[in-house]
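Usage

Read records sequentially. Each one opens with the input sequence:
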Amino acid sequence: MRRRSGRWRWWRALGLALVGLLVLLNAVLALHAWHFTHFSAASATGLRMRHPERLPANQKLQLLLTGLPNPKPTNSGVPDFPYENVALTSPNGQLAAWYGPLPTPRGTVVLCHGYTSDRSKLRGEAAYFRQLGYAVLLFDFSGNGDSEGNRCTIGYREADDVVAAFRYAQSRQPGRPVVLYGVSMGAVAILRAEAELGLRPAANVLECPYGSMLQTTRNRFTALRLPTFPLANMLVFWGSVENGYWVFGLKGEAYARRVSTPTLLLWGTADPRVTRAETDSIFAHLAGPKRRVDFVGLGHEPYWHRQPARWQGAVREFLGGLSP
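and closes with the structure output:
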């Protein structure tokens, strides 16, 4: 009887330890999900989640245990071209934007930035679109830059912001085409705006959209050399709970099936955040006219910075081939 009683106590202690570990793991991942989708007003470290694999060992440990406060992105400059400060009204709050008009534009390009970024990071691309004869509209997604809020849903609610920006562009140039340009999160927000919110632009230029939020989360755990299962699944689950939508359904490749807009898809072959398989899937599923250009050796970064001639040529040829 004593031997059986001792075994029972051992199994009971093991069971309690496993339950405690599971509770702790869920608490840690829930905190990670919160930091990932809610920006802080300021951070003593100034660190961002953009490149977690590059952090020193002690900061990696902090990241693993508690997540890092993710400071709200701030604009780092203003355009060199003439622009107006404008405010857009979105279901997510008021959005700060720059509108760069032209006397007789071919149309308007709306520029949509990526995660932990802001409109100022797209000034170079905007300047080139103006050279091609397009007015430009650069805006901060809700929770980013000078726009209201501090929450970022990595492309889901940002789709409403894309719609608001598109409608404003239409109002400034009635009857002229509107082209959507998006990077990473911004590209996925564009895909969702068209697939689920009924937006119909003249064309899309999309850089490195992710295939699904689950896969991009797996890619981040891989970069940290951590097991993707079940950690990535648990993180995405808590993101769903905290943000009020099913994050497992946030899939660029699924949205692509319902996008018939002429689309130029751009991707860097050394991108650790968005895999070739994801990019292949999105391109294969795009339902309308499409073209793809790969940038050899480039990662999750602005392509025009390092291969400006190739980027400009791809964009110029694509937009030049659109019907007037």
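Summary fields computed downstream for this record:
- The first strand starts at residue 84 and ends at 90.
- The radius of gyration is 22 Å.
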